[in-house]
Amino acid sequence: MTSFIDVRDAEKCFSSSEVFGDVSFHIEEGEIFSIVGPSGSGKTTLLRCLAGLETFSGGSVHIDGEPVTDVKANARPISLVFQQPLLFPHMTVLENISYGLKFKHIKKKERLARASVFLGKVGMEKYGASYPHELSGGQRQRIALARSLVLSPKLLLLDEPFSSLDKKLREEMREWVRTLLKQQGITAIFVTHDQEEAVMMGDVIGVFKGGTFAQIGTPHSVYEHPATPDVAHFFGDNW
Ligand code: ADP
Q1: What ipTM does this complex have?
Q2: How far apart (Å, rounded) are the C-alpha atoms in residues 89 and 116?
Q3: Residue 52, SS3 per DSSP
Q4: What is residue 229's three-state secondary structure?
Q5: pLDDT tens per residue, range 15-42
Q6: Alpha-carbon gap, residue 78 to 151, rounded angstroms
Q7: pTM score, whole prediction
Q8: Ligand 1 centroid to 46 CA: how many Å?
Q9: 160: helix, coil or strand?
Q10: Which of 75, 78, 122, 171 could make a disulfide contact with 142, Cβ separation 3.0–4.6 Å?
């Protein structure tokens, strides 16, 4: 039986230099997979390839049994939340959340109704008529998350979504996001360079080093039984 998300032998080269290769992993439905690795190790590039914003140089990706590597970005059942929430400044919060539904040919009234539901899910009911500049960084990131969730993606990609927030808010947000994703049964990949964050967020962790996974396992197994001295060293740092 294949898994809900199945990535096999994925690789990416820019010109002649390889960013990553031999990347294989699978994720079960409703699971959060944390990818942790140092800056520059290729995590963002991997997410951008999964989202269709870049093309893989090789390998295959199946979501719910369907191949997606030849599917255009906007037709993939995947949504990406960036490090910096890129909201439209001239649109209200509610319009920002509902915007992506336009391309699914959903009528305006229904779009706004659905957006309102997700505004509630991210605890921002009172801010539907506000503009992005009136919100804090954490609030903007909540809206960015609602904007992704309203599209009902089969796979949600989170690229260091808390990196622009201060430490206290980051800790609050990660607990809150994990709870929300679990309540909604969302299948997600959460990318971070922070080992503690990866352990807190993931059901499964992949340690990304040297352009491939050095180890994939539960947070407990990776932390307690690092597969290589490199993984042990990486997990030993900054705790
Ligand atoms: P991370 O997210 O782990 O910090 P990135 O995926 O941003 O890593 O970058 C991995 C490597 O890929 C870096 O060396 C970066 O310079 C390179 N890279 C990313 N995008 C491009 C591009 N469009 N062209 C050439 N090299 C790139």
Answers
A1: 0.97
A2: 19
A3: coil
A4: helix
A5: 989 999 999 999 999 999 999 999 899 9
A6: 9
A7: 0.94
A8: 9
A9: coil
A10: 122
